[in-house]
Amino acid sequence: MSARRTTSRWPDHLSKAGEPDPPFAGPGWRQPRRGTWIYQGAQGAAYVQAALLDDGDWFLELWSAQVRLLARGSAPADEVAALAPALTAKADVWEPPSSLESSRRRFTDIAQAVRAASDQARVRAATTSSLSRAPSPSAPQPVPAGAIAAADLAATRRSR
Hints:
By secondary structure, this protein is of the alpha+beta class. It has three helices and five strands; from the N terminus they run βββββααα. The protein has a five-stranded antiparallel sheet with strand order 1-2-3-4-5. β1 (about 30-35) and β2 (about 35-40) form a beta hairpin. Mean pLDDT is about 80; it is low at about 1-10 and about 135-160.
């Protein structure tokens, strides 16, 4: 007769208890084991697996619904929430890459696009909020874009 195990199926060093959720954890995310999270927008669809690295960044891999590696790379925790849906959105149009280098290149391209979109959204939000507020008399006046370009051109000429 076999003895029944009364302990968790996870050893203590793999226990999920007491571990805080990362900032990106939310709808679509689940944690199969300590230090690993999976984002899947729909059941049976492509998914992103995120593994915590020693330096605090996350290593992401995009897997197709047929469990074929499509892209991989690392990102800070504050970018993972935006990267996972962006990566899974590309899964249907991408074929499995011919090499690990091309899977890294795919990841880098998507990460740069997400960062650029995020930067544009921040600028738009800042512009919208600053235009909606009436400037106080003591507030510094905004610098016209032409002045920035002229100053940049002058700096370039001086450095030559």
